[in-house]
Design goal:
Strand 17 and strand 18 form a beta hairpin. This protein is mainly β.
Length: about 775
């Protein structure tokens, strides 16, 4: 485990380093000063929002709304130190956004720590209830909650067996079997009793990759065993697998007064509005700070596809003590990533959806009852950098799109970098450090992820087939993952699902991994490619101290359920430079993810494409209303065989893994159409993509090779993934890899441009659209 002092030092430096970092594509960051500065404080009020007379959080938000319609500089909001006790969510939408390329910046006042808390104070008014057991009570507690914080330390909901291991979240009992028709669990008779308020007691189970909180309905017994039934809201979802899936599940019971037997445990009797607590050594309830997290969402940045929330940043703020009471009323049946399948939705302490250029930089997230940071649908060109996340009930960072998302709902071009993430899944144990579903061009790098009962990083979701799902071009690199998978099985430090053209798992350091005594019979690995994982490259990762004797594996590929066409390259070496470079970095600088993204929709029809250099020759390259006026492209047309007609676009030189995407439609099967040539800073063609004589072609070294046939008048999505370190590339057409590990046409050290056109000796026409270069 990393030393805390090193982490604090690294994160402090990283939080300041990102201020001068590169601005990702689409930020359009203006060089300017500050238009206005406003202030908020925990006791703020009014509308002045000045240093002398600060506002509340809602007050300063409302102040910004009066001045941000035509910004001439950034608007800075300084939050003074102290605890902001929040009874309602701070909501931000498009009207709270930055304008004219400037941003609205929420940050801590220098040297002070603002804490946004969703907790309700239950300090004071405690009386001794049972002197022999040292149990205290507090009456008049009408709120319902599932967490309690005493003197800034999470307390334990009364349970049996008691919590004795912070890593596995155990001890546990083990189920004997299940009857999936009767929807009952069979357990040892001695493990259950006729506790008071039985309908409030929960059986908390860990079947493989699931986590279930099942509220008891009743139980029967015979000479040796008990047969436990559950309430209808969750029982219908809790037994959908075969009976063997529910045999030998680790489990415990919680939330009964009779289970209140260990220091630090608590029980809330909602029928009597009374809270009970057994103090730890040294805790004095006459002076202790007792907090019950009750507000689910602290900050919600929510736009719409037509009016996204945008250009907002948060830095230096602590988000703390959010709640989530959903399972108390409905139970919980959650598949991996703490994802309910019984109708509930896990909240995030900070949420953002339908947002562009949202930045969360150098914040702290802790003691949260749901997920820490919940992002999507439709989050674009945003950065989650230098944050600390710890003691979180469900997932750490969650980024979602639906399967095969529309352009509006797709989450893309997001950086999740240099974050320290530990102790997630603390209440819902199949929570994951970083969870990214059907996303595109997302970079997950330089994160420290450790000490959690389930997986470190999951990329992708259930595809159901070897088919396109919208996942594409993501990279997971330079992360330090250790001491994960401490409870569950069927997962890994890094885990993938579904077809993912151009995805790289690269130079990660994965270590200190073992299979828990409580885990079941399914696989566990450092790198795990599960159902229908396809077109993923795992390269130059370091896997060490993997306890294979416990049942853990270095790598695992679920070929029995569609995992195929993946590449495993040099994952056995113990490269010291990879270890040294992995995880949080003190001098971290944000990379530019997207170097070019051009859809031409805002360009003038009939004009040359803006930003491109056109050499018309005997033809033309002009913006066209094809496929339609709202979805334009560039038409290249040449009727004479003399001369060349080209359109060229350059970027700053990029090296390493570079992805080039293009959408192309050739109007004839004949001729030679450069669509595109991918060039270096010296103008040399590294990779040439060609439409000729009915085939999409490319060069493998000096050999012209057919990738696949094409039909005139049909659009094709091309994706070339280049590695300038090896001078090799893969080519995908419509999400399917057609060329693997081809050699560059010419050896180059960088990629710097695109060239499209029709050369001398050829005639014809074609369209190109959605040009993109991703090179973090």
């Amino acid at each position: 485990m990393r030393k805390n002092e090193k982490l604090r030092r690294c994160l402090l430096i990283a939080a300041t380093a990102v201020i001068a970092a590169c601005i990702p594509f689409g930020m359009q960051r203006a060089e300017a000063g500050t238009q206005a500065t406003y202030y908020a404080s925990p006791t703020g009020s009014g509308s002045a929002c000045s240093a002398a007379s600060p506002c509340s959080l809602a007050g300063v938000r409302n102040k910004v709304r009066t001045v941000n319609s035509a910004m001439t500089g950034d608007i800075k909001i300084y939050l003074r130190g102290g605890t902001y006790s929040m009874s309602s969510t701070l909501t931000l939408d498009s009207s709270d956004s930055g304008t004219n390329g400037y941003s609205v910046q929420w940050s801590n006042y220098p040297g002070e720590t603002p804490v946004l808390s969703g907790g309700q104070s239950l300090s004071g008014s405690w009386t001794l209830h049972d002197s022999s057991k040292q149990i205290y009570k507090r009456s008049g507690v009408s709120s319902e909650f599932r967490q309690l914080i005493v003197n800034d330390t999470p307390a334990i909901r009364a349970r049996t067996p008691n919590l004795t291991d912070a890593d596995t979240m155990g001890g546990y009992y083990t189920t004997v079997s299940a009857d999936t028709t009767a929807k009952t669990y069979k357990i040892n008779k001695s493990e259950i009793a006729s506790w008071s308020n039985l309908s409030k007691v929960e059986m908390v189970l860990q079947p493989h990759w699931y986590h279930n909180n099942l509220r008891l309905s009743s139980f029967t017994t015979d000479a040796s065993y008990a047969y436990v039934s559950f309430q209808a809201a969750e029982s219908g979802s809790a037994f959908t697998k075969s009976a063997s899936f529910y045999s030998s599940n680790a489990y415990h019971f919680e939330n009964a007064y009779e289970l209140l037997d260990a220091a630090g445990e608590w029980y809330l009797d909602t029928s009597a509005d009374t809270l009970y607590y057994k103090p730890r050594s040294g805790e004095d309830l006459s002076t202790a700070a007792v907090i019950a997290p009750t507000l689910d969402v602290l900050v919600n940045m929510a736009g719409t596809s037509e009016t996204p929330v945008h250009d907002i940043s948060w830095s230096g703020v602590t988000f703390k003590q959010s709640g989530w009471s959903g399972p108390s009323g409905s139970g919980l049946v959650a598949t991996q990533g703490a994802t309910p399948i019984n109708g509930l939705t896990v909240p995030g302490a900070v949420q953002a959806s339908n947002g562009n250029r949202i930045r969360l930089i150098g914040n702290t997230f802790e003691q949260l009852g749901g997920t820490g940071i919940k992002l999507g649908y439709g989050l674009k060109s945003s950065q989650i950098v230098g944050n600390t996340l710890q003691n979180i009930a469900a997932n750490g960072i969650e980024l979602r799109s639906p399967k095969n998302a529309s352009t509006a709902n797709l989450s893309e071009n997001v950086l999740i970098g240099n974050n320290d993430i530990s102790r997630v899944g603390q209440l819902y144990t199949n929570g994951i450090g970083i969870l990214a579903h059907f996303v595109r061009d997302v970079l997950i790098e330089h994160n420290d992820i450790y000490n959690m009962p389930y997986m470190g990083i999951q990329l992708g979701n259930q595809a159901g087939c070897n088919c396109n799902t919208g996942i594409s071009g993501n990279q997971i690199r330079y992360n330090d993952l250790h001491d994960v998978m401490q409870l569950h099985d069927d997962g890994g430090a890094i885990y993938t699902l579904g077809r993912q053209p151009g995805t790289y798992l690269y130079q990660n350091y994965i270590h200190s991994l073992a299979k828990s005594d409580y885990a079941m019979s399914y696989p566990l690995a450092g790198l795990y490619m599960d159902n229908y994982s396809e077109f993923v490259t795992a390269q130059d990762n370091v896997l060490s101290d993997i306890d294979t004797a416990s049942g853990a594996s270095l790598t695992y590929e679920q070929t029995g359920i569609g995992a195929q066409n993946n590449q495993w390259v040099n994952n056995a070496a113990q490269t010291q430079s990879v270890k040294d470079n992995a995880g949080v970095q003190a001098a971290y600088s944000e990379p530019v993810i997207v170097r070019l993204s051009d859809g031409f929709d805002a360009a003038t029809t009939g004009a040359s494409p803006p930003g491109w250099t056109v050499a018309s020759g005997t033809g033309s390259a002009l913006v066209a209303d094809v496929p339609g006026a709202g979805d334009k492209s560039v038409a290249v047309s040449k009727a004479s065989s003399t001369g060349s007609t080209t359109a060229n676009r350059t970027i700053s030189a990029a090296s390493g893994i570079v992805t080039v995407e293009a959408r192309v439609r050739a109007e004839q099967t004949s001729g030679w159409k450069m669509a595109p040539y991918i060039t270096s800073s010296g103008g040399t063609a590294a990779v040439s993509l060609i439409f000729e004589n009915g085939y999409i072609k490319t060069y493998d070294g000096s050999t012209l090779t057919n990738a696949q046939a094409f039909t005139a008048g049909v659009w094709y999505d091309l994706q070339a993934v280049l590695d300038t370190n090896t001078d090799q590339f893969d080519l995908y057409v419509d999400g399917v890899r057609r060329i693997t590990d081809a050699d560059f046409r010419n050896s180059v050290s960088d990629i710097s441009g695109l060239l499209l056109g029709i050369g001398s000796g050829h005639t014809g026409s074609f369209y190109f659209d959605n040009m993109k270069i991703v090179a973090p």
